[in-house]
Design goal:
heterodimer, A: alpha/beta, four-stranded antiparallel beta sheet, 11 helices, about 25% strand, B: mainly alpha, 9 helices
């Protein structure tokens, strides 16, 4: 994170920083939710915030959305200062909040047309835009239905459609697929991918590592109000995990203490070993070789799984396995 | 300022869209109660009062005595109703205010739009009620129609402070207090049904503090042709002060709640 030299405005780099953050802080009373973070989001990329609950993702998103005043540091959104130009910034943002804030009394289409009015679009523009967006999120048939009657997935799609009413340069999505079934998630990912191809810059927070791997060009892992790591999903896996992970299960009657003893016997076979209540994880670049070596040493695990490292391994390594409430 | 007007207008559009769906329901709540009062008090009790001579009321029928006050009271009740539950819904239940401030709208714009819609509700409801009053012969002079702007003003005078109060509540149980200890006593002791000079001194002074008394007094004096310019100016300024201070408080409350 010491790339202070590559700050905004350097035309030679030919990338434009839509969100420029240096030393950003946010406190609520005595509590410091964000404790000094640096990052840039470049035009056209999909940028992710990962982190456990309370990591400071949503606070950061609210500041980037120009609705929450910063407590310290520098924040420029689309080159503007949110303290001075909040309304002009928000005119060019689309925001898809974590909770659906749709108006349940109104129809699907009215939710879009009224939102367009907040951006100062004429009523005719609002109607035209609403019809395009309903088509885009496959809700045309539901146009006249009250929002109350939609499924969770349809509501999320409508919320995303609503955030696109003003044709934003930058789209902020706070946990866009939380609570959705797999079909609905894949449909949403498809829509978000198409937006990205159309040149919309995306900023996404998520708890789902597969979502981050699917959607994000670059991401940061936040923990305790700070950035713990930054990079592309592949970079992060390379830097913070191994190529593969070998999982060894020794059956239900092997206790944690035995796992510790077993770990001692194989720890030289992997770059890193993690002892869990039900299994051992061997982080290694060649999982099959580790399995062979385990067998050579006379150990007979009940089940063996060799898999590629995922972002989830990185995430758990960086933020720990302890539950955050 | 021009931005606030433009943005407030955009937010007002939200309520018009909602109102297109709900106006039928509000017709009943806006008119039934005042109509009942008009019938029961103005015509029922009124015929009894009037049978003993109209001298005590300065020579006007009881209906004409109470009608301007009922108009002002109706304005207050509609304004309080619109500044309580809908505001809490925007902040907490449906959270539509939160989605509004993610757009170019600012918390102050949201307040102005909300107040504009309350003004619209008060004005349209009171205009219809005024026509009904006139049909019943409740206006003594044509100047009584000036009760309509007075009704609008008292509605605005209470809407701001009540909306500000709504922003500091955790749930809607606090509204019961507003109705029990605010709206109902203000209504009963507003001077709409009898001159407050009939009351013990300390209650009489409480009545003078209430914005509703000022609206009732002004509205009635206009209809009965008993305006004292100085007192009328006092009434107007007092209501205006409530409106301005209340709106300021509401802007502060919304700002704190929405972007705190």
């Amino acid at each position: 994170m010491s790339d202070g030299a590559s700050s905004v405005g350097q035309v030679s780099e030919q990338r434009e920083s839509l969100v420029h953050v240096r030393g950003l802080r946010k406190s609520y009373g005595d509590f410091e939710a964000v404790r000094g973070i640096d990052l840039d989001v470049w035009r056209g990329e999909a940028f992710g915030f990962l982190g456990p609950n309370g990591a400071g993702k949503s606070s950061t998103m609210r500041m980037i959305g120009a609705v929450s005043p910063i407590s310290g540091g520098t924040l420029k959104i689309l080159g503007l200062d949110p303290a001075a130009d909040g309304p002009s910034i928000r005119a060019r943002l689309g925001v898809c909040p974590q909770d659906d804030t749709l108006d349940t009394e109104l129809t699907v289409r009215e939710n879009l047309t009224i939102y367009g009015r907040y951006f100062g679009l004429s009523r005719a523009e609002c109607r035209e835009r609403a019809d395009e967006l309903l088509e885009f999120v496959a809700l045309t048939e539901k146009a006249k239905v009250k929002v109350d009657e939609l499924s969770g997935g349809m509501k999320r799609r409508l919320t995303i459609a609503r955030s696109l009413v003003s044709k934003p340069d930058l789209l902020l999505l706070d946990e866009p697929t939380t609570g959705l079934d797999p079909q609905a998630r894949h449909l949403l990912w498809d829509k978000l991918f198409r937006l990205k191809q159309a040149g919309v810059t995306l900023i996404i927070t998520t708890h789902y590592m597969d979502e981050a791997e699917q959607l994000c060009d670059r991401l940061v892992v936040m923990d305790g109000g700070l950035i713990a790591a930054e990079g592309s999903p592949a970079d992060l896996i390379r830097d913070y995990s191994t190529r593969e992970v070998t999982e060894l299960r020794f059956g239900p009657d092997v206790m944690l203490a035995d796992h510790d003893a077993l770990a001692g016997k194989v720890e030289d076979l992997a770059q890193r070993i993690e002892v869990l209540p039900d299994r051992l994880l061997l982080y290694t670049d060649d999982g099959e070789r580790a399995v062979a070596a385990v067998h050579e040493r006379g150990l007979e695990p009940a089940a063996v799984l060799v898999r590629r490292s995922t972002l989830e391994d990185v995430f758990l390594r960086l933020t720990g396995r302890t539950l955050v409430d | 300022m021009a931005l606030a007007v433009e943005n407030g207008r955009r937010m007002f559009d939200y309520w018009l869209t909602v109102y297109k769906r709900t106006w039928k329901g509000t017709m009943i709540s806006s008119f039934l109660l005042p109509m009942l009062y008009l019938a029961a008090m103005g015509i029922g009790l009124g015929s009894f009062v009037d049978s003993n001579g109209t001298g005590a009321l300065g020579g006007v029928s009881y209906l004409q005595f109470i009608a301007p006050g009922l108009l002002a009271s109706t304005a207050m009740q509609i304004a309080v109703g619109e500044a309580t539950y809908p505001v809490m819904s925007g902040l907490k239940w449906q959270k539509f205010y939160h989605s509004m401030i993610a757009t170019p709208l600012r918390p102050a714009d949201v307040v102005y739009g909300q107040l504009a819609f309350i003004a619209f509700r008060v004005f349209t409801s009171c205009a219809v009620f005024l026509v009904i009053i006139a049909l019943f012969g409740g206006l003594k002079s044509p100047l009584g129609v000036l009760g309509l702007p007075v009704a609008l003003l008292v509605g605005m005078a209470v809407a701001g402070p009540i909306a500000a109060y709504a922003t500091i509540l955790d749930n809607d149980s606090g509204f019961a207090m507003v109705f029990r200890f605010g709206v109902v006593p203000a209504f009963l002791f507003s001077g709409a049904f009898f001159p407050v000079s009939q009351l013990p001194d300390w209650i009489e002074w409480l009545a003078y503090v209430s914005p509703l008394w000022h609206a009732v007094d002004l509205s009635r004096n206009l209809s009965l042709g008993t305006v004292n310019p100085l007192l009328a100016l006092g009434n107007l300024l007092y209501l205006l002060a409530w409106f301005l201070v209340g709106t300021r408080l509401a802007v502060r409350g919304f700002t704190k709640k929405l972007i705190g």
